[in-house]
Amino acid sequence: MESSLKIGSAQLGPISLAESRYDVVKRLLALLYKAHSFGVKFIVFPELALTTFFPRYWMTNQVDVDRYFETKMPNEVTQPLFDAAKKLGIGFYLGFAELSEEDNRIRRFNTSILVGPDGKIIGKYRKIHLPGHSEKRDDVPFQHLEKRYFEVGNLGFGTWPVFGTRVGMAICNDRRWPETYRVMALRGARVVVLGFNTPTENINHDEPLHLRMFHHRLVMQAAAYQNGMWIVATAKAGYEDGFHLHGGSCIISPTGEIVSQSTTEDDEVIVYDCNLKLGDYILNSVFNFKKHRRIEHYGPITSQTGVDDLIDVSSKL
Ligand code: CDV
Fold first, then answer.
1. Is 47 an annotated catalytic residue?
2. CATH architecture under which domain 4-316 falls
3. Distances (CA, A) of 46 to 25, 30, 97, 117
4. How many helices (H) and strands (E) does the chain have?
5. SS3 (DSSP) at 289
6. Membrane-spanning residues where (predicted)?
7. Cα(170)–Cα(110) distance, rounded to whole angstroms?
């Protein structure tokens, strides 16, 4: 195993409704070249990186929705990204809306791919923790219709050997769930990468920006330490046609510390040379899974979703 890997997080500023995929790919290419000039070998782009964050809009005509989806990857517009990756020897993570025909029906997923330094796709992940709602809400300032426009991912939490380590992928809301990282850690992931679009306003509860940012970092910093892994999180940030996304791209070490973070709400590359052995001492001591995990007591994690089935343990005490 190589002992270090220079990773870049390539944050995007806003993508307006009017911006074409072609123009967005030009921005992604500029970030890729900039990352290369910093010596980056693996670059992480955001969730749904080719379009505006369309789940905020209520659309009743499926043709309108499908305009945001890719039916092929790479395709004519994104091919230059794959060509540049190959030419420069950089791998990347890219999020996009995926429309595919499977089991004789059209399926739509919030997807990310892992592309190797040879420009070939080596892994695919489809978002599992879809937030939001599936019907129109009239009580909120904007919609969050991921549960309407996407199916729950059906590929599980995969991990892939690449860049001298093992990489896992997640997407946005997945980062808030501890199960996401632990499953990947048990599958050997030492680096987890993810993209996100997080609205500054919580449509369900009045929450100040500092608390939104605190929770965003808290979940990942804890997960990095608890799983002895690097986490790279890349935002789409800023005002998209009047709707604000809070940004806060960051690279987190296995000690739980943020070692690099974005300072703008625009297109920006942040970089860190990640010591791939740094998590070893954590995984060999306090979080030595084999030695200390007590799976006989973890049953509810996989047998229950909510607390509906909760038995009253207090009556047995
Ligand atoms: N795109 C997302 O998954 N956004 C969620 C919001 C809705 C809370 C997030 O977890 O950031």
1. yes
2. 4-Layer Sandwich (3.60)
3. 12, 15, 12, 18
4. 9, 14
5. helix
6. none
7. 10
pLDDT of 185-235, one tens digit each?
999 999 999 999 999 999 999 999 999 999 999 999 999 999 999 999 999
> What is the rounded CA–CA span in Å between residue 275 and residue 71?
37
Taking all residues of the chain, what is their mean pLDDT, rounded to a whole number?
97
- b/e code 273-285 from CB counts within 10 Å (16+ = b): ebebebbeebbee
pLDDT band at 315 (very low <50, low <70, confident <90, very high): low
From CA 293, how far away is CA 172, in angstroms rounded?
Answer: 27
- 172 touches ligand 1 (CB under 6 Å): yes
Q: Does the C-beta of 197 come closer than 6 Å to ligand 1?
A: yes
What are the residue ranges spanned by the domains of the chain? 4-316
Q: What is the pLDDT of residues 267-276, one digit of tens each?
A: 999 999 999 9
Question: Does the annotation mark 127 as catalytic?
Answer: yes
- The predicted model gives 50-70 an average pLDDT of 98
